[in-house]
């Protein structure tokens, strides 16, 4: 296992990634060289903690009843990997909350409810943020983002039921907003097949949502007053994608695909691609926020970009 350091991360994506308002004609792809920073079972939920120079992630599910998933931590200076919370209720996507705790999508099981939880990074102590919509249980929350006002936005597809470790859904596959003031979750968007990744534009006026069920769309929703306006399709993904979504400081959208990470303009135009088949999810990190940490189920791969995370 190679520790991540400022001297070892010298490989860069060649050339600029395009600009806002680019034409819809695709630019030539220049494949970057990338570095494996850890060989491990990193599956979902990568989150960079700047105060620790560490990466948190959820492990690849181990088959069982229910599947076992751990929340783990990679120390990027030493390369050491430790378990923060073992057997974490089939945890998936994660974000960092306004108080520094991990905000975790727990998909649940037949024995434990699905929920959004807050997990202390040091002790692993866990508290429920929300586990229902109007008294009805959630399906299997998949990805989550935290807005500047502290509200928690998350997707809730029914993959747990389809994969055999959750009961039949009581609600549809929706997107929700949890208000920390009222402690209630509100449905903000519906009509998806399988809503998955989500990310805000830098000004939080647009929420991007990946629907990786048929027909594999990337959608954009205007945001105002904690609500979403009508969504519009801005791009199509590959089968079972897009999944992970992130946005950089210039507003470009990064979306996982079967071939790696596609980079789109805010209007959906395809600008470039980081070629890495097997990509599951990713996040921006590093002291300059210009490192893209990519999980692949067997490794964490890093690429240094000429772009900074939002």
Briefly, what is this?
The protein is mostly beta strands and 310 residues long. The protein has one helix at residues 159-162, and strands spanning 35-39, 42-49, 54-59, 71-75, 81-85, 91-96, 102-106, 115-119, 126-130, 132-133, 136-137, 144-146, 152-156, 174-179, 184-189, 195-200, 206-211, 217-224, 227-228, 232-236, 245-247, 253-257, 260-264, 270-275, 281-285, 291-295, 299-304. It is globular, with a radius of gyration of 18 Å.
Mean pLDDT: 90
Strand count = 27
Q: Biggest sheet, in brief? A: 5 strands, antiparallel
| Amino- and carboxy-terminal Cα gap | 29 Å
Low-confidence stretches: 1-31
Query: What count of helical segments does DSSP give?
Result: 1
The share of residues in helices is under 10%
Can you characterise this structure?
The chain has 310 residues and is mostly beta strands. Helix content is 1%, strand content 44%. It has one helix at residues 159-162; strands at 35-39, 42-49, 54-59, 71-75, 81-85, 91-96, 102-106, 115-119, 126-130, 132-133, 136-137, 144-146, 152-156, 174-179, 184-189, 195-200, 206-211, 217-224, 227-228, 232-236, 245-247, 253-257, 260-264, 270-275, 281-285, 291-295, 299-304. The strands form seven sheets. Strands 16, 17, 18, 19 and 20 form a five-stranded antiparallel beta sheet that branches. Strands 1-27-26-25 form a four-stranded antiparallel beta sheet, with no helix packed on it. β25 (281-285) and β26 form a beta hairpin. The two termini are 29 Å apart.
């Amino acid at each position: 296992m190679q520790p991540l350091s400022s001297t070892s991360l010298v490989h860069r994506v060649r050339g600029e990634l395009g600009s806002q308002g680019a034409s819809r004609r695709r630019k030539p792809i220049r494949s970057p060289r990338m570095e494996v920073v850890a060989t491990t079972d990193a599956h979902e939920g990568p989150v960079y903690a700047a105060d620790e120079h560490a990466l948190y992630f959820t492990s690849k599910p181990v088959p069982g009843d229910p599947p076992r998933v751990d929340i783990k931590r990679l120390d990027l200076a030493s390369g050491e990997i430790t378990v923060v919370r073992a057997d974490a209720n089939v945890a998936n996507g994660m974000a960092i909350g306004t108080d520094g705790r991990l905000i975790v999508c727990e998909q649940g099981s037949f024995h434990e409810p699905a929920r959004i939880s807050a997990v202390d990074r040091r002790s692993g102590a866990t508290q429920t943020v929300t586990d229902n919509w109007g008294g009805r249980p959630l399906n299997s929350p998949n990805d989550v983002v935290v807005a500047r006002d502290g509200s928690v936005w998350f997707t809730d597809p029914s993959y747990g039921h389809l994969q055999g470790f959750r009961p039949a859904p009581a609600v549809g596959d929706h997107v929700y907003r949890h208000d920390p003031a009222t402690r209630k979750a509100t449905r903000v968007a519906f009509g998806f097949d399988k809503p998955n990744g989500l990310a805000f534009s830098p000004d939080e006026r647009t929420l991007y949502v990946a629907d990786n069920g048929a027909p594999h769309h990337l959608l954009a929703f205007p945001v105002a007053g904690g609500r979403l306006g009508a969504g519009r399709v801005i791009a199509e993904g590959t089968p079972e994608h897009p999944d992970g979504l992130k946005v950089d400081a210039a507003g470009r959208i990064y979306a996982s695909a079967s071939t790696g990470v596609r980079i789109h303009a805010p209007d959906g135009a395809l600008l470039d691609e980081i070629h890495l088949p097997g990509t599951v999810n990713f996040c921006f990190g590093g002291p300059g926020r210009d490192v893209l940490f990519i999980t692949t189920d067997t490794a964490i791969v890093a690429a240094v970009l000429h772009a900074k995370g939002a």
